[in-house]
Amino acid sequence: MSRTSGGSRHNARIRTSLPAQIAPIDVDGGGSHLHRQRAICVGLSRSGARVLTSRPVSPGTEVRIELTLARGQRVSLAGRVAWSKVTTAPSALCSLPQALEESSLGLEFSEPTSARAMVAIADFLSRERLRRRQRIERIVPQLRPGIHRHA
């Protein structure tokens, strides 16, 4: 569960821009590959993700998402769409500069999730947090020109 009963998150989500594919889980045997769509994961935590898609997916829908993490590592996770919203904005999914309808959704990963996938996500999140902390540490001294560190 990614939220407490009060609505706050258990796991902090970090901003990302990861290629993904998302499809409804085929519970009827009717070929969910027909509904597979490209997506972009724009926020990721250990318990869920925020995803941009070109077509809306209804809340409550069980889906499978395949994420491509750093270094081309792919992980596949099952989840449930917690919320879905359609907006008109310049699309991150299309190279056209025009405004297009775009759907964003909140995905809550299902239990149980494969140990390999969870380790890969935890490693990715740890590396991203460290990389961002190091970048901030390089930038902060530049923002404070009057403060010099002496070794």
Layout: helices, strands, pairs:
Blueprint: E1 14-24, E2 37-44, E3 48-53, E4 62-68, E5 74-90, E6 99-109, H1 115-143
Antiparallel strand pairs: 1-2, 1-4, 2-3, 3-6, 4-5, 5-6
Assigned CATH superfamily: predicted glycosyltransferase like domains
Return the CATH class. Mainly Beta
| Strands, total number | 6
Kindly report the CATH topology: Thrombin, subunit H
Give the overall form.
globular
Write the element-wise H/E pattern from the N-terminal end onward.
EEEEEEH
Poorly predicted parts = 1-9
Walk me through what this model shows.
The chain has one helix at 115-143; strands at residues 14-24, 37-44, 48-53, 62-68, 74-90, 99-109. Residues 1-9 have low confidence and may be disordered. Helices cover 19% and strands 40% of the residues. The chain starts with 13 loop residues before the first strand and ends in an 8-residue tail after the last helix. It has 151 residues and is of the alpha+beta class. A hairpin with an 8-residue loop joins strand 5 and strand 6. The protein has a single domain (14-143), classed as predicted glycosyltransferase like domains (Thrombin, subunit H), CATH 2.40.10.220. The chain is globular and about 60 Å long. It is built from one helix and six strands. The longest helix has 29 residues, at 115-143. Strands 1-2-3-6-5-4 form a six-stranded antiparallel beta barrel.
